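Worked Example 4.2. Consider the chain below.
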Amino acid sequence: MITIIPESPDNVAAFNATGEVTKEDFENVVFPHVKAKVDEFEELNYLLYLDTDPGNFTMGAWLQDAFLGLKNLTRWNRTAIVTDNEGVQNFTDIFSVLMPGEFKSFPKENLYNALYWCKNGNEVEA
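Applying the procedure from the previous section yields the following structure tokens:
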């Protein structure tokens, strides 16, 4: 399931993924929220808090995720993937070279820092 993180900054489309993630999660939650943010801010700052194993994404969810990327290809600004899964962190860092905009992984304990970075491109100073 994907839900919107309500306490996220206005210019960030932030989501929490838990349990099984389906194509309906993208169609009913992610796409409308992302469209609203892109329409309002003309760019996409996106955060996904991955609180489930990537294996819990159905094939339809992966296809919708890819479609989201292609549909908004020129609008990507900053994307944070928040997870403790090292494979996903490494993939995110490699993927950042291939996509427009900035992509960055953050460990789960740094959710606040990830939201802050998505909002303005800076990290919270320690």
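The mean pLDDT is 86. The chain has one domain: 2-120. Compare this with Example 4.1 before moving on.
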